[in-house]
Amino acid sequence: MLDGELAIPTSNGLSFDDLLQRIHPAASRVRTLVAEHPAVYIVFDLLADEKGRPLVQMPLRERRVLLEKLGAKTFDAMPASASGLDAAAVVLSPSTCDARVATKWLERGSSGWGGLDGVIAKALDLPYQSGTRDGMQKVKNLRTADCVVGGFRYAEKGGTVGSLLLGLYDSDGLLHHVGFTSGMSAAMRADLTPRLVRLIKPPGFTGRAPGGPSRWSTRRTDEWKPLAPKLVVEVQYDHFSDGRFRHGTGFVRWRPDKAPRQCTLDQIQPTGKSALALLVKTAKR
Residue 229 — φ and ψ, nearest 5°? Predict the structure, then answer.
């Protein structure tokens, strides 16, 4: 019994969007996606051995030794992935007790290894922590980007702005929606709202726009106001993939000194290196 995570490797790293497409009610559609975008399984932990003996009460340092022995016998024998990347269908996640090595992994993740947004630190002396994050911490790469405010959403109550919709220009000059930021004080929201109202002007985003149908759409998904591309904001983020920020970003400051057209995707776009290739190469060492 293994603890791990499915991932779908692409030429730009691990694709969260392709993975989400697997959540579909039609079995035939799932089979098509499996053929077009094969997944790999990245193993983190071993919860029971080959004989079915539970290992969850064993400390992590002992479980890891057993997992590596199992991986040496089993994972390398798995068929090659059809992704075009040099990776097996099952991959053992690398681990180290050397902080310098972990720091290098973190640095490589932030320098273009698409799909890696941080490093997990775990306490070696604890049993398996089911349903809790006790004994672990995720260390993320926190970076900043300058974005155009291409629109906003009102807060559910109060009539003030709730979140700013962020955009970045591509090489063709199209402004694409890439995420949002909402970390603003109540006073700032109240002062900002009339300023944004004066800037309301369609279309806001000339490329990919907010909204659109999805499994997670709500009644407010399409309720946003487009803005003339006048305002630039610096935000802090931890992960960018598939053309957008994976989580909400943190408001840092306004950038009146920067022209909106200077806010381009190339300041944060992945370089195309494979995060999965890094995992496989490191684990084989």
Answer: -75, 80
